């Protein structure tokens, strides 16, 4: 029975692939007529299939107006894969995980859970990578502001100071400032570019920088002193943030252990004693207990998250 289910999953995946590539464009001009005037590299069948599938997935996401990821989010995470390609890889991984869980582990429920875990784990990984980049951006900000203030004190203009800091600073703040400089050179307002960086990095501190530069532009004043004061304020905020993070580290670790413990125990007993675990699915009281446990698990996770999460 399990082999039949796994075979149906594989056949379904292949059928979906066939449906995705059914709309491959047909040549309207004979290949020989085109070859008489130019040498054109003909794509292979695999390339045409991949292009058609990517186009179908991209069209479906645009029509539904739902995206698991954005292009900027993947760029921040350092994943050089287009969004449709990543969705296709996730779908293939989900099918493989479902087949492995159904055949090797001998449980259709485990296969379903493994398939559902593929997009969840991918989303968590992307979120973790983007969060790490944004934290590094915040840590670099005070030093970069001091470099800008020193450059302004030396007599450079604000665009020139931004350009110099963008060349000296490391990623991620260096490329972001270089993007601001390039957008300013093509005629975009600098304040709008700075605000876009603050939104992309989700940095309230950098939004203060843009507000300070905008206020100095309207009212005048010594910009290097303003940047020094903003840098000092941001450094104090980071010091308090690091203290709070250190004090809350024990609570966060306890929350992670408590959240992983039920999943680990349930997965262990599902593998070594699948017959006993099926009692929770075959009986009515077992289903009620599973539903109540899942509800309490979610509520407990949200409660612990609200306790250990400190917002600044």
What's this, in brief?
The protein contains 14 helices and no strands. With 312 residues, it is mainly alpha-helical.
* Poorly predicted runs: 19-28
Helix content percent band: over 70%
Number of strands: 0
Structural class: mainly alpha
The largest sheet, given as strand count, sense and whether it forms a barrel, is: none
Radius of gyration: 27 Å
Order of helix and strand elements from N to C terminus? HHHHHHHHHHHHHH
- Give the overall form: flat
| Total of helices | 14
Distance between the termini: 54 Å
**How much of the sequence is in beta strands?**
under 5%
Overall pLDDT score:
81
Domain Type II secretion system protein GspF: 145-269
Keywords: Cell membrane, Membrane, Transmembrane, Transmembrane helix
Main location: membrane
Membrane topology: Multi-pass membrane protein
Fold and architecture overview:
Residues 145-269 form the Type II secretion system protein GspF domain. Its main location: membrane. Pfam families: T2SSF. This protein is mainly α. It is 81% helix and 0% strand. The protein is built from 14 helices and no strands. Helix 6 packs antiparallel against helix 11 and helix 10 (204-219) runs antiparallel to helix 11 (223-272). The radius of gyration is 27 Å and the shape is flat.
């Amino acid at each position: 029975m399990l082999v039949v289910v796994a075979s149906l999953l594989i056949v379904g995946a292949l059928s979906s692939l066939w449906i995705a590539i059914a709309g491959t464009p047909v040549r309207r001009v004979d290949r020989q007529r085109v070859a008489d005037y130019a040498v054109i590299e003909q794509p292979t069948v695999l390339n045409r299939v991949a292009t058609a599938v990517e186009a179908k997935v991209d069209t479906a996401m645009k029509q539904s107006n739902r995206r698991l990821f954005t292009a900027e989010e993947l760029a921040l995470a350092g994943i050089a894969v287009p969004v449709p390609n990543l969705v296709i890889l996730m779908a293939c991984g989900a099918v493989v995980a479902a087949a492995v869980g159904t055949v090797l582990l001998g449980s259709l429920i485990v296969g379903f859970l493994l398939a559902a875990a593929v997009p969840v784990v991918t989303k968590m990984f992307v979120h973790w990578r983007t969060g790490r980049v944004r934290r590094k951006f915040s840590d670099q900000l005070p030093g970069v502001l001091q470099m800008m203030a020193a450059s302004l004190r030396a007599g450079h203009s604000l665009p020139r100071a931004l350009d110099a800091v963008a060349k000296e600073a490391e990623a991620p703040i260096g490329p972001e400032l270089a993007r601001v400089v390039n957008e300013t050179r093509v005629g975009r307002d600098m304040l709008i570019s700075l605000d876009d960086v603050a939104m992309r990095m989700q940095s309230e501190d950098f939004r203060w920088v843009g507000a300070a530069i905008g206020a100095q532009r309207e009212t005048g004043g010594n910009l290097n002193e303003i940047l020094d004061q903003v840098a000092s304020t941001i450094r104090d905020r980071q010091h308090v943030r690091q203290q709070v993070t250190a004090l809350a580290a024990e609570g966060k670790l306890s929350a992670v252990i408590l959240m992983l413990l039920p999943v680990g125990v349930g997965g262990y007993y599902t593998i070594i004693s699948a017959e006993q675990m099926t009692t929770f699915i075959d009986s009515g009281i077992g289903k009620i207990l599973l539903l109540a446990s899942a509800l309490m698990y979610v509520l407990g996770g949200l409660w612990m998250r609200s306790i250990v999460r400190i917002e600044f």
